[in-house]
Amino acid sequence: MAEPSAPPSSPEPAPPSTTGPPSPSPGVLAATIGDELVLYDPDRGRAHRLNRSAAAVWEGLQAGLSGDELVAVLADAFAVDPAAVATDVATMLDVLAGEGLVAGAGLRAPAPAPPPVQGSWLTLPPADEPPGQAPAPHPVPPVLALHTGVELATSSAEVSAYLGELLAPLRAPAGTAVERRFELVSEPGGVELRTGDKLLRTAIDWPIAIRQVVIGLNHLAAHPDPADLVTVHAGAVAIDGRVVLLAGEPGAGKSTLVTALVADGATYLSDEVVGLADDGTAVAFPKVIALELDAEGVLGELPSDDAHPDLRDRHQRLVDPHALGVAAAPGTTLPLAAVVLPTYVPGALGAATACDPVEALLALLANAFNLAERGAPGLALLADVAVSLPVVRLEVDDLTAAVATVRSIVAGGEHS
Predict the structure, then answer these.
(1) What predicted TM-score, i.e. pTM, was given to this entire model?
(2) Which residues pair with 330 in a beta bridge?
(3) For the structural domain made of 23-103, what CATH number should be given?
């Protein structure tokens, strides 16, 4: 939110969310940038930009001030009548409580946090879970989902060969510890995806089952265990050994721009999930690039995908990054140079606009995967990126112009 505002009127006040004096809700993360405060609620995945007065209320609660003490301190700081301050503080507390940021007797109860995703790859048994049935006979070379070693096998020699080709950019180095094992097995009711003795899901055919494997590897990369990285929904390429992060929601054009940059000589790191380490380096997850089926209309001719026509994804065009240019090995770390936030705008010629640090942090938070697991160190890292590196919004249509602008940003060139 830009700043707290008065709550909507309601015929019946909501019951108090808790007993006791107002206090910050457990788990809420805070970052100060200049004279502004940004709060992040991991339970709801929402970031909030507080104005000066709301930030003062939050900081007073953090310091353990009572309601009366808070009013007195703010009245003195802002040279305002205490009675007026008391009214404003009550309103702010109620708004913050409604957002789930503050709890206390007499305050609004927040909307419930969304339930956890059911059937997720994130709640899988450990790798040493004993197999419940005979193992699938056709193994696929192990791969790395950021730093999680994954072993796959299928009941089809052709499918295993195809998966080996599709996942080759993620091939794990020899000796990598395997932490997850999955099997795809064709049964009368469809293709079963299993781990240990658990059935994760059943797909109606091999292409859908293969797509679920790719999605599952994305999920494992987005939520590493242990959570020693911040993961961001972004593509990434390296230019002259320095990484530009291309962050954005689905449909923002990340994969298309990544593909154009790799074809232009940049080194591919990912088109979906990027890990950020505490030392400011980006960690490569060079999965197969997933493009829209009509991508050739924008990008021009792409590498052939004529092999295994019966196994191809019917909803996306999957491209081996090595067929376009250079891809980093999985787990490669390189220094982060800039963040670009692409948006498709018809007719755009690569116009770029720098974000202020708070806007930059909010954009990064909107695309963070695992701050609930990484916690305060993760927010501090993203705040440091927002303050210390260029974060730029880029309008994209003409890919040649967009590639030139990205190269200029990474090189430290001018952008407007």
Answers:
(1) 0.86
(2) none
(3) 1.10.10.1150
